[in-house]
Amino acid sequence: MDFKDVANGRRAVNFFDTKKPVSDQLLREMVDTASRAPSSFNLQPWSLMILRDYEEKMRLRKLAWDQPKVTDAPVVMIVLADRDGWKKGHTSVEKDFGEMVKAGSMAEEQYDWFIGACRSLYGETQDKQQAFACKNAGFFAMALMYAAKNLGLDTHPMDGFDHEGVREAFNIPKNYWIPLLLAVGYFDETKTLHPPKWRKGFKEIVVSFGSKV
Ligand SMILES: Cc1cc2nc3c(=O)[nH]c(=O)nc-3n(C[C@H](O)[C@H](O)[C@H](O)COP(=O)(O)O)c2cc1C
Predict the structure, then answer these.
(1) pLDDT for 64
(2) Closest to 82 in 3D by CA, of 50, 49, 44
(3) C-alpha of residue 195 to centroid of ligand 1, in Å
(4) If you take atom 18 of ligand 1, which residue's CA is the nearest one?
(5) Measured in angstroms, how far is the CA atom of residue 158 from the centroid of ligand 1?
(6) Phi/psi-derived region of residue 104, left when phi > 0, alpha when psi is between -120 and 50, beta in every other case
(7) Whole-prediction pTM value?
């Protein structure tokens, strides 16, 4: 699919076809494609919980403003942002460094520098940890939505949910923040999709704040 078609065709789809399943293979392709998303130092501080079971989805729906799409969609993902994904000893951090050494973009002797850089950029304060986790997981979530559209799937992102309730109900460890839930499936063709919504234009997006020089 042409990228413009993917970008224009992706919609937050409110109604899912309850009778049209999504195969494991398609889901895997969607996640594999989205995994190409960029991240700080390539640390990839994201994880996914994938819910298919109706009872589990209902448990989530009750904590998500009772939004029917949570149970209507054949698949619901809980997107997780890892606030510890910059720390020395973290599996991804150690793997990332090792891969950079293998690829020749980092030397073994730069380990302490790398760990220090990760700590000062992403770990020094709780704000930095939160920003690090959420911005990167946000890119991943966007990539998931585009990857889905490209495969003919529809999605719906949601942050209307009880964050701590979901954490508790699904045993999600404290290092994770939950930026959003993502319903995945096929639009119910018997329903009407709202017309495309307004977007800020170029002039509204681009700003400047002057310069002291
Ligand atoms: C992070 C995020 C959270 C959202 N949460 C909800 C939600 O809880 N419930 C809902 O109905 N829509 C939710 N939306 C959907 C937005 O309202 C929708 O994306 C926006 O109105 C633009 O519509 P479009 O995606 O169809 O272009 C969310 C979107 C994003 C990106």
Answers:
(1) 98
(2) 44
(3) 14
(4) 12
(5) 6
(6) left
(7) 0.97
Q: Residue 198: inside a domain, yes or no?
A: no
Residue 151 belongs to a domain: yes
pLDDT of the residue at 1: 86
Indicate whether 41 belongs to any domain: yes
Where the chain has pLDDT below 70, the residues are none
Name the residue with the closest Cα to ligand 1, atom 20. 12
Structure tokens at 110: 């730069």
For residues 93 and 123, the answer to whether their CB atoms sit within 8 Å is: no
Which of 67, 158, 178, 182 to mutate for ligand 1's pocket (most ligand atoms within 8 Å of CB)?
158
Q: In this predicted structure, what is the pLDDT of residue 158?
A: 98
Q: What CATH code is carried by the domain that includes residue 144?
A: 3.40.109.10
Q: Which domain holds residue 154?
A: 3-189
In a domain, 199, yes or no: no
Residue 152: the pLDDT is: 98
- As for how many domains the chain has, the answer is 1
Strands (E), 12-132: 46-51, 75-82
**Mean pLDDT, the chain, integer:** 97
pLDDT digits (tens, 9 = 90+) for 133-151: 999 999 999 999 999 999 9
